[in-house]
Design a protein that fits this description.
The complex is a heterotrimer of chains A (282), B (830) and C (277).
Chain A: H1 10-35, H2 41-65, H3 85-113, H4 123-149, H5 154-157, H6 162-184, H7 190-218, H8 223-226, H9 231-252, H10 257-279
Helix pairs in contact in A: 1-2, 1-4, 1-6, 1-10, 2-3, 2-6, 3-4, 4-6, 6-7, 6-10, 7-9, 9-10
Chain B: E1 13-17, H1 21-24, H2 28-38, E2 42-47, H3 52-56, E3 59-62, H4 68-81, H5 87-93, E4 117-118, E5 123-124, E6 133-137, E7 145-149, H6 161-169, H7 174-181, H8 185-196, E8 205-209, H9 211-214, H10 219-232, E9 243-245, H11 252-257, E10 264-265, E11 269-270, H12 278-291, H13 305-317, H14 346-354, E12 360-364, H15 368-371, H16 375-382, E13 387-392, E14 415-420, E15 429-432, E16 437-441, H17 454-472, H18 477-482, H19 496-504, E17 506-507, E18 527-528, E19 564-565, E20 593-600, E21 607-612, E22 696-701, H20 717-722, E23 727-731, H21 732-738, E24 745-749, E25 754-762, E26 768-770, E27 773-775, E28 777-781, E29 822-828
Parallel strand pairs in B: 1-2, 1-8, 2-3, 8-9, 12-13, 13-14, 22-28, 23-25
Antiparallel strand pairs in B: 4-5, 6-7, 10-11, 15-16, 16-19, 17-18, 20-21, 22-29, 24-25, 24-29, 26-27
Helix pairs in contact in B: 4-7, 4-8, 4-10, 14-16
Chain C: E1 3-8, H1 17-25, E2 51-59, E3 64-72, H2 80-84, E4 90-92, E5 99-101, H3 111-115, E6 124-126, H4 131-138, E7 151-153, H5 159-162, H6 169-173, E8 179-183, H7 184-200, E9 207-209, E10 219-223, H8 243-272
Parallel strand pairs in C: 1-10
Antiparallel strand pairs in C: 1-8, 2-3, 4-5, 6-7, 9-10
Classes of the chains: A mainly alpha (282), B alpha/beta (830), C alpha+beta (277).
Bound molecules: iron/sulfur cluster (3 copies).
Chain lengths: 282, 830, 277
């Protein structure tokens, strides 16, 4: 009956999008490297280089989302309160940044650019840190989903699957981001491109399945996306542009990596946007 | 109130009709809720719209505004037909057994009129309404004779009140009620059945009413009708019973007690009329009250009136008032016929002002530019004033009437003084609540800035007037010079305690002994008393009983040691009627008083006294078996309550339509109250509209969130939050017909004016089915205006006051305006 | 002993004295409201409005009803708002059981607002502190913490009054005693007795609202109809209750749904041979 409050806006979408992207980039790259037994080392490198800028932007948006007069008290969050998903997120993000955002890229940089020579060739350390980074990467992708899912907002919390979709779409954005960087770089790498296009397609299918499960499990609460005020954005933006289009494009033509990656990334952003906004419709 | 707020908890059935207790007297619900919870009481609400009171009621029934009489007469008819009445009570305690002049004719015989009507004067000759009397010896009466009404204890004489009432009420069948009031018959009967259960001797039902009954051309009769019903059910004088007017202001009871009305002087003595002499006036009490229509043994307390008058005159004129000069009764103001013979009520005064006959106005404690009826006429009337002095806390619509929308301030010549007044929290003094409890209140803080209390301002004005008369003389200088005016406290400033002591009364000429209570007042000039009902507020030792705050530990809720109630600390008046003929309580579970044959009277040493949980409203040692020991109505000559009581428009309530009504009166050919003053026939600018032009019933009311004209509350942001703007409540059906969406601004208009309001489209208002015709209702709060923090709306050319629409016509007895039923139409604002 | 406020909707006359008393005691500015064609005028809980009364019209088959309900913090037994707060700014007062926000710690992130299962999120954001409040704090009034701009606000159970032997301001003012205050056990037995009485009087749907899913509440309602009629969740849950499960769905998605296809795709790259640098 009453006008609802609508406190959370695009700043938070950006934060959740970038955090997920960072986690997924590292996650994709490191796994590609592991599973291909080093054949996809370049993918891992690009993935790890993407982490720090994304994380920094994530933190910037996170801070900007706080009221200006409270922003510089952000250290109030640096307590230990494991029951709070937001608090979990703060620590996950910190540890992820330290491992995946700083240490692993530093080892790669030592190899590529020769800085910090003592790190060069520390493959054992890199692998160990990568495993930790993968774990915190998943955490980084997931926590913002949990932050929404442990609320009393029905679209976010009625089903248990919002964090699942969060991880699934984040991975889409991670793969697409690495693929985009590769496509835009002057040094072509056909193997990586082929593999990543396949991975993207699979990730998109997984995301689509998870989203369908989420929508079903949410029941009536999902109607705001299916037929309500965010239906257009959802069907056109998320489903058509973000999922169907990249798959179709990749099937139909080679050399369209740039376009299909951008569309997939846009789709992920839009998905997080419709969820955040759609949940606040009363 | 015959009873008091706390006593509502003793009720078995509470009717809220002609009022909206939950919204306008929220505190009443503390006790109503208790009655419902602890006694299983039923709550009935009858109202034109579904109010917050209705929301709490067990039974709600709608009724068209202005049709309370048919509804209540219908209930009376039900009670009589189904023998639900309390037979012993009506036989012994009411005038049901008294015989009336056989010439008396009723509306059923005379097409809506009683016998004796003069259609040119619009007045009744009451000769045929009188009792049949016989002269009986009575040693206490002056002259030794009383003219006593004849009585038929079998109540079978066709001229006895009981038979008359039966015949009159029989016309108000449930079908008739449904046709006139628009109340569904089954709801009506459900209410009749539930309320008439209180006719059982051990049960008591009560009525809470307010301006929804008084503010009609038949206002007095509305209340009388229910009082009659209460008598039939034996509910008067009883804990949990009574006829309870919920007063709209904390101290409006005090204002009537102190006679801020034109027909009385303090403590309900009649106002003297031009030509009255001291003896003539005094004999209306001393002789008439002791001999006319008096049943043997009737206490008829008003026979003491002369003592109160003389004491009042002593308080006013001091040593100048002596037995030889009739205590200077000749110096008192007297009334004539008023403007155009219309008296001195609010409407009459403003009509006189409109006609240019009033030059100046001293206005305090009110805001007539918002509160008065037909405010376009009344604010225009103020332009004829040469001067206006207004005491208030804020800029009000009245003291800025020249700023009202549509008025050119340049053209207004009135000189206006605003005197900043202190708020009630900023001064000491007493207030009398609806239950006649006179409670002392202490100053909470000093008045702001230059603000002064009403007493200080009155004192300053009076002293200055006295000085001017003393120095310059003038008309009536002798009177002014002799007014006894000494209310200075220890520091020389006027002291409200001194005024309170003057009201209590004291001995003269020594002036230093307070009287115990009004039984100690004398007619020989040895006592002075400003208000005999307030006598007893101090003990003889000077203890201020109004300051007592001792809640009762056990009892029936009367809390006798909590402050002081008039008269003589009595909480439930006429409480002799709470006992049966032998003096035993009708309901032994809630005993009010009883006759104790063993209790010894300290003064005489004889056994036998009334005693109990209240101050008995009876002669303390008059045994039930004594002559008149069963006559409980001590303020009435008869000694019994009146089911039949002559008023301006007749001795029994009869239905007449409001002056502006959408339908014809189907009870008779007499459309409106035959005795009411029709101002529109005197002043053509005071318009009355017709149902063809304005088919919708309009009514005004208050909301919890704003108080009266809103001056106190519209300047308070928290309250403005809750009710920010002028609105009109209409049904979904009417909104549909007029294509109005909820929240849209609409114009409500009639012959007298137009205003804008936000539409509240609600299921709480339903169209009425009046004899087959659909009639709509538009409800308007009257608390908004054009001055102050919250004005009511954004339109610069209209002032949003509901009273721009109300008519200049009033009740035939009290002249209170008919605010509650008039005609309007409504349209969407583009 | 946990305390509770009992709000009896069957007794409330919607006089809204509680609203004014709360504003007055707590030095809260007025809201700015337009007449919208209702009695509540879309008044909502906000940083300066900690309780309000809603009006609900309902056409029941046997009679027309006008229900009133007090919107306010329920002082949950297991408060979701406190659970989600990353700064630990919300705590349950051990003496009274009231859930209090420490505005000095609060960062205004609004997590608590979205976590609260009642009244579309009870804690509300407020940007400014009024001069009146500054002055009030200058007089030493800082209970339970000082007022800070750009943080979250809600009912604080008038702990300052309660700890000094008074009832909450809204309770003291309520004319028909629709609001009562005392030990939770006592309030519950009053509520149960009242419901029994209401049932006797024909209110077949009368019920006590003290939802177990949030650990019971420090504000108990007596209702005349189902909770949903009043805008209350029938069976509210602590919003963080299934957080672990929700985490798991995310982890499974990453750990199984993704790793398997990844393994297939990336493993293939190993076979292609000429990847890497
Ligand atoms: S003060 Fe009491 S009766 Fe008035 S609105 Fe609040 S809870 Fe209801
Ligand atoms: S009602 Fe909401 S704000 Fe109040 S304690 Fe419960 S979760 Fe917290
Ligand atoms: S308990 Fe105090 S703070 Fe809470 S709503 Fe009542 S008055 Fe306001």
């Amino acid at each position: 009956m009453h006008e609802g409050t609508h406190y959370w806006h695009w700043l938070l979408v950006a934060e959740m999008f970038l955090g997920g992207l960072a986690g997924a980039c590292f996650f994709t790259g490191a796994l590609a490297d592991f599973f291909s037994k080093g054949k996809l080392r370049r993918v891992a490198k690009i993935g790890s280089y993407l982490v720090l800028p994304s994380v920094i932007l994530t933190l910037v948006f996170l801070l900007l989302d706080l009221p200006p007069s409270r922003m510089f008290y952000f250290w109030h969050f640096m307590i230990f309160k494991p029951l709070s998903s937001m608090n979990q997120g703060v620590w996950i993000l910190t540890l992820f940044t330290m491992t995946a955002g700083v240490l692993v890229p530093a080892i790669f940089l030592a190899e590529d650019k020769g800085i910090l020579p003592f790190l060069k060739g520390q493959e054992g350390l890199r692998k160990a840190l990568s495993v930790i980074g993968i774990i915190f990467g998943v955490g980084t992708m997931g926590y913002s989903g949990v932050v929404l899912a442990d609320k009393a907002v029905p679209l976010w919390s009625a089903s248990i699957f919002l964090p699942a979709t969060w991880v699934a779409v984040s991975i889409v954005s991670g793969i697409a981001a690495i693929r985009l960087v590769l496509a835009l770089s002057s040094k072509k790498d056909e193997l990586a491109e082929t593999v990543l296009s396949k991975a993207l397609m699979m990730a998109l299918i997984v995301a689509a399945i998870v989203i369908v499960v989420f929508l079903f499990a949410s029941g009536d609460h999902a109607s705001v996306l299916i037929s309500g005020s965010y239906a257009l954005a959802f069907w056109l933006g998320v489903v058509l542009i973000g999922i169907v289009a990249p798959i179709v494009i990749d099937f139909a033509a080679k050399n369209m990596a740039t376009i299909s990656s951008i569309l997939a990334i846009l789709g992920v952003f839009l998905y997080k946007w419709v969820i955040l906004y759609g949940g606040q419709v009363h | 109130m015959t009873n008091h707020w706390v006593d509502l908890k003793n009720s078995d059935c509470i009717v809220i009709m002609g009022g909206n207790a939950a919204e306008n007297h929220p505190m009443s619900f503390k006790w109503i809720t208790k009655a419902m919870e602890e006694r299983g009481a039923k709550l009935i609400c009858v109202d034109p719209r579904f109010t917050r009171s209705a929301a709490k009621a067990d039974i709600y029934a709608p009724l068209r505004s202005g049709t309370d009489i048919p509804f209540i007469m219908g209930m009376i008819n039900y009670v009589i037909e189904n023998k639900k009445y309390h037979e012993e009570y009506i036989k012994c305690y009411t005038n049901a057994t008294l015989l009336v002049n056989p010439e008396f004719k009723m509306p059923g015989d005379l097409n809506g009129l009683f016998s004796g009507y003069d259609s040119t004067a619009r007045k009744y000759d009451r000769a045929t309404w009188a009792y049949q009397t016989e002269d009986l010896p009575d040693e206490k009466a002056p002259g030794g004779i009383i003219h006593s009404p004849k009585r038929d204890m079998s109540m079978s004489d066709p001229n006895c009140v009981w038979q008359i009432l039966k015949k009159h009420a029989a016309r108000y069948t449930p079908e008739m009620v449904e046709k006139i009031c628009g109340t569904p018959k089954d709801k009506f009967l459900e209410i009749c059945e539930e309320f008439s259960k209180t006719g059982a001797p051990e049960k008591a039902g009560t009525i809470c009413y307010a301006m929804g009954w008084t503010q009609h051309t038949v206002g007095t009769e509305n209340i009388r009708a229910f009082a009659m019903l209460q008598l039939l059910l034996g509910n008067i004088g009883r804990p949990g019973g009574g006829v309870n007017a919920l007063r709209g202001e904390p101290n409006v009871q005090g204002s009537t007690d102190h006679a801020l009305l034109f027909h009385i002087i303090p403590a309900y003595l009649a106002v003297p009329k031009a030509g009255d002499t001291f003896r003539g006036y005094a004999d209306k009490y001393t002789v008439d009250k002791a001999t006319k229509d008096v049943l043997p043994g009737s206490i008829s307390w008003w026979r003491n009136g002369e003592k109160y008058l003389v004491s009042l005159l002593k308080e006013w004129f001091g040593d100048a008032a002596t037995a030889d000069n009739g205590y200077r009764f000749d110096w008192m103001g007297k009334i004539g016929g008023g403007f155009q013979g219309g008296g001195y009520s609010h409407i009459a005064l403003f009509e006189a002002m409109y006609a240019g006959e009033i030059k100046g106005m001293l206005c305090l404690g009110q805001n007539p530019a918002v509160g008065g009826p037909n405010s376009n006429i009344e604010t225009a009337a103020m332009e004829n004033l040469e001067w206006l002095v207004d005491l208030n806390l804020w800029e009000t619509e009245t003291n800025s009437f020249w700023k009202r929308p549509g008025c050119d301030p340049e053209a207004v010549q009135t000189e206006v003084w605003r005197l900043p007044a202190a708020d009630s929290c900023e001064k000491d003094g007493s207030i009398s609540n609806s239950g006649r409890w006179i409670q002392w209140r202490w100053k909470g803080c000093e008045p702001l800035g230059d603000c002064k209390t009403d007493l200080e301002i009155t004192d300053l004005i009076m002293k200055e007037v006295k000085r001017l008369y003393a120095e310059e003389g003038g008309k009536g200088a002798e009177i002014i010079n002799n007014i006894y005016w000494d209310y200075s406290g220890p520091n020389g400033d006027p002291d409200v305690v001194e005024v309170a002591k003057a009201c209590n009364g004291y001995t003269w000429p020594d002036r230093n002994k307070l009287v115990k209570n009004f039984t100690k007042l004398e007619k020989d000039g040895t006592t002075a008393c400003g208000n005999w009902l307030f006598s007893g507020t101090f003990t003889e030792d000077g203890e201020n009983l109004m300051q007592r705050r001792i809640p009762e530990a056990e009892g029936i809720g009367n809390n006798l040691e909590w402050t002081f109630a008039w008269p003589v600390n009595r909480r439930i008046v006429y409480n002799r009627a709470s006992c049966d003929l032998e003096g035993k309580p009708w309901n032994p579970d809630i005993p009010e008083i009883w006759w104790d044959p063993n209790k010894v009277d300290a003064q005489t040493g004889k056994p036998g006294m009334w005693t109990g949980n209240d101050v008995p409203d009876f002669a303390a040692t008059k045994a039930p078996s004594a002559v008149g020991g069963d006559l409980p109505a001590i303020m009435l000559n008869e000694g019994v309550f009146k089911l039949y009581a002559p008023c301006s428009e007749g001795p029994l309530p009869e239905h007449y339509e409001p002056v502006e009504s959408p339908v014809e009166n189907i009870m008779s050919g007499q459309q409106i109250n035959p005795a009411t003053v029709l101002w529109h026939e005197v002043n053509p600018d005071t318009k009355i509209g017709t149902a063809d032009e304005y088919p919708i019933i309009g009514s005004t009311y208050r909301v919890t969130e704003h108080w009266q004209t809103g001056i106190m509350t519209r300047n308070q942001p928290w309250l403005v939050d809750l009710m920010p703007e002028m609105f009109v409540e209409i049904s979904k059906e009417l909104a549909g017909e007029k294509n109005i969406e909820p929240g849209e601004t609409v114009e409500v208009f009639n012959a007298r004016g137009s205003l804008q309001a936000v539409a509240i489209v609600t299921g709480r208002v339903k169209p009425y089915n009046i004899n087959g015709k659909t009639v709509h209702f538009a409800g308007l709060p009257w608390c908004y205006g054009y001055a102050g923090f919250c004005t009511g709306g954004a339109c610069p050319t209209l002032n949003y006051s509901a009273n721009q629409l109300t008519p200049h016509v009033g009740d035939a007895n009290t002249m209170i305006p008919e605010y509650k039923a008039f005609l309007v139409d409504i349209r969407k604002v583009k | 002993m946990a305390k509770a406020i009992l709000y009896d909707a069957s007794k409330c006359t919607a006089c809204r004295a509680c609203y004014v008393a709360c504003k007055q005691w707590n030095v809260l500015a007025a809201a700015e409201v337009k007449e919208l064609g209702t009695y509540y005028n879309a008044l909502t809980l906000d940083g300066t409005t900690w309780n309000l009364i809603d009006f609900i019209e309902k056409d029941d088959p046997d009679r027309f009803r006008w229900h009133f309900i007090s919107h306010r913090c329920m002082h949950c037994g297991d408060p979701s708002c406190a659970n989600v707060c990353a700064a630990g700014a919300i705590t349950k007062d051990s003496e009274t059981g009231f859930v209090l926000i420490d505005n000095d710690k609060c960062l205004g992130c609004k997590n608590c607002h979205y976590a609260c299962p009642f009244w579309e999120g009870v804690p509300r954001f407020r940007d400014e502190i009024s001069e009146a409040e500054e002055e009030w704090m200058d007089h030493g009034n800082k209970v339970p913490g000082k007022r800070v701009a750009s943080t979250m606000y809600k009912c604080r159970g008038c702990v300052d009054r309660v700890k000094n032997g008074l009832e909450p301001a809204c309770v003291t003012t309520c004319p028909p005693d629709a609001l009562q205050f005392g030990d939770k056990g006592e309030m519950l037995s009053i509520a149960n007795a009242r419901v029994a009485l209401l049932k006797e009087r024909g209110e077949t749907k009368a019920q006590v609202y003290d939802p177990k899913g949030v650990g019971g509440t420090g504000v108990i309602y007596v209702l005349l109809d189902d909770p949903e009629v009043y805008g209350l969740p029938a069976d509210p849950k602590v919003s963080t209750a299934d957080m672990v499960t929700k985490w798991l769905t995310g982890l499974i998605t990453a750990g199984i749904l993704t790793i398997v296809p990844f393994w297939m795709v990336f493993k293939a790259a190993e076979a292609e041979g000429k990847g890497g640098e």
